[in-house]
Amino acid sequence: MDRIRQLETAAAAIEPELRLALAATAMAAANAPALIPPLVAHWSAALPPAGAVRAVELAREALVKMLATIGAPRVINAMAALVDAADGPVRAALSTDARRTAREYRYEPTRERGLGLWRGVYSAQADRLQAKIAAWCPDLIEVIQTDLYGRLLSDCRVLDARATELCSICALVPLDVPAQLKSHTMGAARMGASPAEVAAAAAIAEAVCEQAAQIKAIRHALS
Question: What is the rounded average pLDDT for all residues in the chain?
């Protein structure tokens, strides 16, 4: 319960239905999926039924969107912990249809949508950063802009651009990548996040890192 109170305090500036998504993202990045089920139970009880379903849907989408940032193995483990912890009525109400299908995937519109978000997040630095990455590896910038930004991050049907950038902050803090964290902290502000929301996302992730380290230390002591 102390862990949940710590996260509730950190998340005070975030709307209740989005808190689980941010925390679950940080827990996936910190490789601590065992921390997710108590949060699912807590926020499912704290929210009305429709809000509980919405919270899990937002968390599922956050994990999908952060797939390339966090890595598939950790996202899969976090997704299993998230959905398996939801009670029967919540699981029954979750969407069962894939949103990103071959029927809707068209390369050029997807790439243009990705470029739009790329420019929105990086602003005046967008072209310079694109050229730098392309010089390192042309395939890398292509995949980032088309698949990551185009197909994943800029799809706002469930999570809007502001919430997505807050999730990026939660994913990047445990990964300890200061340059990318700085960019997405500024990107979150450009996408409409308030200073309090940006600070809350970072605080959630920092609290998760602390909790994950405690669990790791206990496991090490017991081994």
Answer: 96
